Amino acid sequence: MGTVYNRYMARPLRIHYAGAWYHITCRGNEKSPIFRDNKDRQKFLELLGERSQEFSLEVHSYCLMDNHFHFLLRTLLPNLARFMQRFNTAYIMYFNKRHDRAGHLYQGRYKAILVDADSYLLELSRYIHLNPVRLRRFEGVPFEEKVKALEQYPWSSYGAYIGKQGPAFLHKEMILGMIGGKDRYRHYREFVLNGLREGICSPLTDKKAQTVLGDDNFIAWVYKEHVKGRECEKEYSKMHEIVPELTVERIAQEVARRFGVKPGEFLQRYARGQARQALVELSCRHVAARVGMRGIAKRLGVSVAALHLSRQRFRKRLMEERVLRRRFAEVEATLRE
Fold it and tell me: Do residues 41 and 155 make contact, with C-beta atoms less than 8 angstroms apart?
C-alpha cells in the first residue's frame, strides 16, 4: 500500500463539516486524574456549556470519569478543532491555577470519531452512559447495585435521559426521539439497562481509519466528499481503511457496461476479446497491490504468465486503436471516482 509511516508520528484523520457528529474522548496524562473533586467537575461542565454556545455546537451526551471524559457532539459549523482547543485550554488553565501545577493535563490530542448518526447514535449514547459501571470495581457486583450506582452518578447526562434535571446546554431530544414510544424516558432507561444486562460491547470497535464510525454507505460518502485526494498525506494514519476497495468483480461490472457485454462472457477461464484483456489490465493495475498477481490469476483461472502475456498484447492494441484507448480510459476514470 505504499510507504509505511512511523505509527508514533502518524496523526489520525480529522474531518470537519457542518452538521457532523463526533464521539470525543480525552485522557489524563499518564492516566492521571483530570478532576480532583466535584468543584473541578462543576467548572468543567460550566466551561462546556459556555464554549458550546460560543461555537454553535450541540452537546448530546457526556460522561466525566476520574481520568477521562466522553462527549457526543454535533457541530453546526465545521469548527470542532477550534472548539476543542478553546475548551481544553480554558479548563487546563483553570485546573493548573487552582491546584498550583504546570504542564500538560491531557495525554496527547483528544480523540474524535466521526459518527454516522443514523446507524450509531443510540448505541454510542448508551456506551457513554454506561461508563460509570464499566470500572473494574464493578466486576461481580449484582445487577441491581450497578443500576443504582448508574442512576445515582451525577456527572453524566444519563440522569437527564431518564427524566431528571439536566444542564441547560444538553440537547437530548434527538436521541430520545429515536427511541420512540410515549414514555421516552422509561424506554431509554430500558434500552441502556438491557445493554448493561447483556454486556454489549463498545460500538467504537467498528471504527475505520481510527476515526470514522458508520455503515458502508456513510464510509463511501466520507471518502468521496472529504478524503479523496488526501490518501497519501503523511500525517494521517490508516487512511486506506476508508478507501473503497476495488475487486475483480467490481472492475468486471464496469468493463461490461462500457464494452456492452455480460460479465459472465469474459470472467470465464477461456474467455477472449477486448473486454477480457481490459479486465486483466485494470485488475493488475488496481487490485494487484492488495491481492497480488497470483490472487488475480487464481480468480481468473489462468497462470501469472498468462496475465503478463495478455497485458503485453493489450498494451500494443491500446497504442494502435484510438476507440479502444478512449473506452478503456473511460472505464478507468469511472473506477477512480
Answer: yes
Phi, psi of 315 (to 5 degrees): -65, -35
Check which CATH number belongs to the domain holding 34 and give it.
3.30.70.1290
What is the average pLDDT score of the chain? 86
At 238 the pLDDT is: 56
Q: What number is the average pLDDT over the span 291-304?
A: 86
Residue 231, pLDDT > 70, answer no
Say how many domains are in the chain: 2
Residue 270's CATH number: 1.10.1750.10
Structural domain contains residue 155: yes
Q: Which residue has the cell 440522569?
A: 159
Cα angle 62, 196, 188 (rounded to 5 degrees) comes to 60
Residue 77: which of 58, 49, 50 has the closest Cα? Answer: 58
Whether residue 99 is found in the same domain as residue 212: yes
Q: Is it the case that residue 55 has pLDDT exceeding 90?
A: yes
Per the structure block, which three cell numbers stand in for 252?
468486471
Res 272 pLDDT > 90: no
In a domain, 240, yes or no: no
Instruction: Report in angstroms the alpha-carbon separations of 298 from 280, 285, 292, 295.
Output: 12, 16, 10, 5
**What's the rounded Cα separation, in Å, for the pair 138 and 142?**
9
C-alpha closest to that of 115 among 178, 18, 21, 205: 21
**Among residues 80, 150, 151, 112, which one has the least CA distance to residue 13?**
112
pLDDT at 1: 31
The DSSP symbol for 224 reads: I
The whole-angstrom distance between residue 8's C-alpha and the CA centroid of its chain comes to 20
Whether the Cβ atoms of residue 57 and residue 84 lie closer than 8 Å to each other? no
Q: How does DSSP classify residue 113?
A: E
For residue 74, give the H/E element and its range. Answer: strand 68-75
pTM: 0.71
Whether the per-residue pLDDT at 2 is higher than 50: the answer is no
Rounded Cα distance between 45 and 26, Å, is 15
Cell of 48: 462546556
